[in-house]
Amino acid sequence: RYTPVDATLIPTGELAGVAGTPFDFREATPIGKAIGGLPATTTDPGGYDVNFVLRGTPGIKRRCAAVRSPRTGIAMLVSTDQAGLQFYSGNFLDGIPGKGDAVYGKHAGLCLESQAFPDSINKQGRDGWPSVILRPGGIYRHAMVHAFTAAEPRPAQAPAAR
Question: What is the pLDDT of residues 14-50, one digit of tens each?
Fold first, then answer.
């Protein structure tokens, strides 16, 4: 599920299913496959900027995302103890200088941020929404782990059989 937003990008309070939407990453799917379903508007550059509702119990660390580049073979596994994961696809990157002589264009990167759901403070008591109230003397903990691996990249094109 995910937390849909209104025209001002504030979550509506709904926890919507991802089936049939550009947000359906329950199976390994190239990020660019459905990004066209999130087009730019006059107030939004288009692309992903969505909070996913994570399976499992908040407060218990569990794996929530896996990202892999078939070109480089690099993979990233993300684990967290939070209720949500914000996925941002670099929508505002547009000619941003990077490392070395690199220049990053729109959607040239991604960010995965574990968190409580955006605007949770105004949704307290709604079914499925995490509590974000920290009382005096209380303790706040937030765990997020990024684990990276590298494997042989797949060839861009399989060699012709002889």
Answer: 999 999 999 999 999 999 999 999 998 887 889 999 9
Residue 30 half-sphere exposure toward CB, CA atoms < 13 A? 6
| Side chain identity at residue 23, one-letter code | F
Identify whether the C-beta of residue 94 lies closer than 8 Å to the C-beta of residue 69: no
Contacts of 153 (CB under 8 A, 6+ apart): 69, 70, 71, 72, 73
CA-closest candidate to residue 13, choices 22, 23, 2, 26: 2
3-state secondary structure of 93: coil
What's the rounded mean pLDDT across residues 129-137? 96
96 three-state secondary structure: strand
Both tokens of residue 30?
């190239």
